[in-house]
Amino acid sequence: MSNQYNFHTKTIAKLGYSDSLREKYMKLYRDRSSLFLPFLRGSVLTYVGIDNIITGPFRQLMIKYFRLGDFGTNAREEYLYYLLLFFGLLQLFITLQSAFQPVIEIIDTKVILRTKERTLSVIKNTFDITNLEIVEDNFLQFSFGDEIYNVQVDDVSTKEIQEIFTSFNFYEEE
Hints:
Layout: E1 9-13, E2 25-28, H1 36-53, H2 57-65, H3 75-100, E3 104-107, E4 110-113, E5 122-125, E6 131-135, E7 139-144, E8 147-152, H4 158-167
Antiparallel strand pairs: 1-6, 2-3, 3-4, 4-5, 6-7, 7-8
Helix pairs in contact: 1-3
């Protein structure tokens, strides 16, 4: 299969099916320890936004060193803190969603993928998979006929990926 992106690709599995080996329900999650830093960033941004809006201890500290008036007297300052609050909440939402929603989920004969190409999860039949390969060492590329989806797996354990291959009777290419 030709690669349309000019990336170095490596096929890691050939597809084979065996219903006797298939588990009915499998999920692959991101490593939760890698989500700590984005969660911390979101928490700090949210705290700074809320603290400055309600004149909390951080704003009182800033008033000592900077010439700040009451909140709302300067429109640019007000928009800045609302923007910080928005980005902090957005970061927290995305981080929590990544912690609890699986990257790859397999239920019976369906595979559900979270990709960067699509906003919503992609649901496809496992029998339609034509090729599966690792692209750029951190994306698992699923090919379904003429459709290609890349799933970021750099935060997913390699052991978990291999377990899915063996449970679906994927054969590693050498």
